[in-house]
Amino acid sequence: MAVRMKDIAQELGVSVVTVSKVLRNHSDIGEETRQRVLKLMKDLNYQPNFAARALVTGRTYTVGLVVPDLVHPFFAEVAKGLSSSLRKRGYSLILASSEEDPELEAQEIGRLLARRLDAIVIASTQGTAESFRRIEEQKTPYVLVDRRFAGLRANFVGVDDEAVGELATEHLVSVGCRRVAHIRGPEVSTALGRLEGYRRALGRHHLGPLPNYVPAATAGDEDSEARGRAAMRELLQLDPRPDGVFCYNDPTAMGAMNTILGAGLRIPEDIAVIGCGNVHYDPSLRVPLSSIDQQSAAIGERAAKLALSLIESKSGRPRSVILEPKLVARESTNPARRA
Amino acid sequence: MAVRMKDIAQELGVSVVTVSKVLRNHSDIGEETRQRVLKLMKDLNYQPNFAARALVTGRTYTVGLVVPDLVHPFFAEVAKGLSSSLRKRGYSLILASSEEDPELEAQEIGRLLARRLDAIVIASTQGTAESFRRIEEQKTPYVLVDRRFAGLRANFVGVDDEAVGELATEHLVSVGCRRVAHIRGPEVSTALGRLEGYRRALGRHHLGPLPNYVPAATAGDEDSEARGRAAMRELLQLDPRPDGVFCYNDPTAMGAMNTILGAGLRIPEDIAVIGCGNVHYDPSLRVPLSSIDQQSAAIGERAAKLALSLIESKSGRPRSVILEPKLVARESTNPARRA
DNA sequence: TTGAAAGCGGTACCAA
DNA sequence: TTGGTACCGCTTTCAA
After folding, report:
1. Contacting residues of B for A281, CB less than 8 Å apart
2. Which residue in A141, A153, A144 sits closest to A126, CA to CA?
3. Are A107 and A196 contained in the same domain?
4. Residue A143 and residue A88 share a domain
5. E strand or H helix at A163
6. pTM
7. Strand, coil or helix: what is A320?
8. Domain count for chain A
9. What DSSP element (H or E) covers A169?
10. Nucleotides of C under 7 A from a protein CB
11. What's the pLDDT at A314?
12. Which nucleotide is nearest to A47 (CA to C1')?
């Protein structure tokens, strides 16, 4: 059906080897032969067979990406950045979604491993580092993004989460908040880092710790927005009530905002709110949301770069690329409307 | 490195063929042999080599998806639905983004074709049906989602766009709007269908057509939100000013809403707004946005189903799966606040 | 500069 | 029920 090297070789009266060499522009081919082969390849629209090539070279020119949830804008942006960087280098991206389920994630990783991808990028929803041991056994290079694991010396690309927490908390304090609450995320490195940053910033200003100002994380991974609503309801019971809230991420902040407004309170006059992620619809929310930019696209690009370098040279110890978060202030923390 | 059939065969003193047959549970294998082989496969954690298998069977167990923009929630949801349906059937998903660029889209399709995927799903940003001819030449089954093409008899999964336009417009009329404008999308089937539905509904109520109530589409594919802002500014110049706006999609509606509110007008009191897409953050927007649900997840699932059926039996004429849109009313068209 | 032969890891066919 | 052999399309090695 499809055009093969053999067809080109026969047509031209040369050998398959010659054609193959032209394709990968080997030096030892006569200029005239090379031109004839190239021309016929064009004319016949020859496409090399990836499977055949992969079988002999062991390289698939494919990178896998496992994310907890594609619809979450953060992961969508990472995927976009990754895909566009890989494309430029001739690689394709296989996408797998773990749907926030560690079991499923392990399965998907197994499947990608079976496909002998050249590298795998993972935003893990895993509790332990177990499944990564399996990847290491297979010697497939992998890069963790966003979330990392204690005791696992792996390649990593992400933002400095403690800096996120500090930046957000500092900002709330700087616009006049004195009772800053935090709606934390689940037991993963990102959430823990942001919590730590929050505590540190609060301590620096002698404004904490405050009892009950960090509602406990829920076990079941309910969706972030629902989580934000529920946690905010708890916070509104407190006396004195918080006058600022730093939310684990933007969906959580959306939930918290809806609860605050639903209770008849004003943002930022009564309670200032800041999230994390700086998703593109933040400016259009009921109150335009201040947020910490996580550099999601950059994370994707850097992850691609790192993955490619691992593919080229399987050497060296694990590297970490830590990006600096950036504050993006909007109405939800506008100091002019506070005071 | 990795365990091969040969290793298993040697270890057990059987032939490679026997092992292969066990793997695909062929009937003609002795029960005892089968068990021994299976056990060793487990113990050695044998993973078949996809490339080798693909080379001989011609099947890659991989489906491609080409979208204009992964970050757009609609496409993210389609991708999610598609990926989860495919996974259940043992297929993987290769993702390519065209970044709204027809040229890039054609390139990406070419690349997927070169990889000999079993099927390709495309949300096209193409102006013409040209690149699909190429796919047809290669006999790779493909499914169009969301957008379709005049004169191209292809498999398609999407929503009934004229129904979208009618539903949205009818709703605006039903909440009391009498001067209904439409911010249209680019020259693609979805936008044209919605426009047609809008006109038809308006005609039915003898409320249109209204001169200048449908600002011309822009050529350059600026981002939807900017487009919404710009078009809305035009509409606000009109006298009489519209009292309802149906926007091509939700990002456009976000832009339009921001312009309306920025001009000191109220939604829905002065102008009611409805979008299309029913993206998950609609309820949290500055004014919770009424929208037409496009069934994005269902589109992904149905596309997967259709693609798989095409793979199984390459026969039959193209099929179209047309889903019915659903109205989701929120504050931006709340009749109680109009009147 | 060119090409013959071997082999990558499987599957299909047919004979034993 | 089992396995020998050929072959999928390409790359690698080495000799011509």
Report:
1. 254, 281, 285
2. A144
3. no
4. yes
5. helix A161-174
6. 0.92
7. strand
8. 2
9. helix A161-174
10. 1-5, 7-13
11. 65
12. D9
